[in-house]
Amino acid sequence: GQNIDQPTEMTATEGAIVQINCTYQTSGFNGLFWYQQHAGEAPTFLSYNVLDGLEEKGRFSSFLSRSKGYSYLLLKELQMKDSASYLCAVRPNTGGFKTIFGAGTRLFVKA
Amino acid sequence: DTEVTQTPKHLVMGMTNKKSLKCEQHMGHRAMYWYKQKAKKPPELMFVYSYEKLSINESVPSRFSPECPNSSLLNLHLHALQPEDSALYLCASSQILGGNTIYFGEGSWLTVV
Predict the structure, then answer these.
(1) Cα B92 from Cα B23, distance rounded (Å)
(2) Size of interface A-B (CB pairs under 8 A)
(3) Mutate to test the interface with B, among A32, A44, A101, A107 (most CBs of B within 10 A)
């Protein structure tokens, strides 16, 4: 079966750094995505990793280790507007390029 | 233009009604998707179209009927829905099936009464 695990909720302080972890077990692997979703809005693409290592994009970075079935999203210099759900999504190697979403991590940024 | 546009934003329909959700993109993307998302749950894939042909149907009940009239448009026809079908319906697109960036529309909030 396909399984994606991430913490349900996290709280962090404005200006700090937070790391959101994601572990997955899927039938093969063809890429991992991170999305940000504010309440009542559509998911917004943040990053895509298909090879091991760190991808940096401004305040956001995403890391992947395929051998460990593990990824994290790193958010630096947190701002209040970063309060949102962060969805980890994996594309298995089967099923015609389906993307399977994790349940999401709700991040609360406090002043 | 990196927009996926969905209409209507909100829809309330009775269980005997027939309605449609519409989705449009002008990015030249050839893969389009319908997802369903319940509150505090992740999006669940319903249908995938690739080059205007249905590529994936995730065992969705026949009361949901997708249609892709051309490469820019994707419709979801709704008939005889149940209250449990109330959810946020998200349209998305990517350059091709398997593309590494999927753009989502803002969604259509559906309430079935």
Answers:
(1) 8
(2) 50
(3) A101
